[in-house]
Amino acid sequence: MPRQPAPSALQALYCDHHGWLHGWLRQRLGNASDAADLAHDTFVRILGRDQHAAIREPRAYLATIANGLVVSHWRRRELEQAWLDTLAVHPQAVLPSAEDRAIILETLEQIARMLDGLPARCREIFLLSQIDGLTYPQISAQLGVSVNVVQKAMTRAVGHCFQILLRDD
User: I need a labelling partner for 109 at 20 to 30 A (CA). Which of 89, 101, 124, 165 fits?
Assistant: First the structure.
């Protein structure tokens, strides 16, 4: 378990910059509630880091962490909306439970994070294969690339996802 910074340093960081960070996040998110949640999450991230050196530019440091959380927040909102749009076209009897919906949304968010690091063409090939169920020759024909290009892109995508899974464990 990583050692945590001295409580006094973290307290000072929090006391000196929490108000600023909350305002910064409120401007980007448009509401105080989400801003408060992400400001809290920013400081939780700092607690989990194994960094003992003094932070030279605290606002830049906080903004960098918070910006990543804002990106994740908006990505999650987009995924939730897409999921809700999908559910809206199904009859009530086939709708998943609240618990199942939460699990599905978390899984979709993990997949989105994994695919974010891939080049657009590689991501497209991966999704055509894994989501649409197309074969490599079908993907090749649809995108106008060789089967070899599809194979290399799939190898890269699967390797990339595997590396992220290893890193997250």
Answer: 89
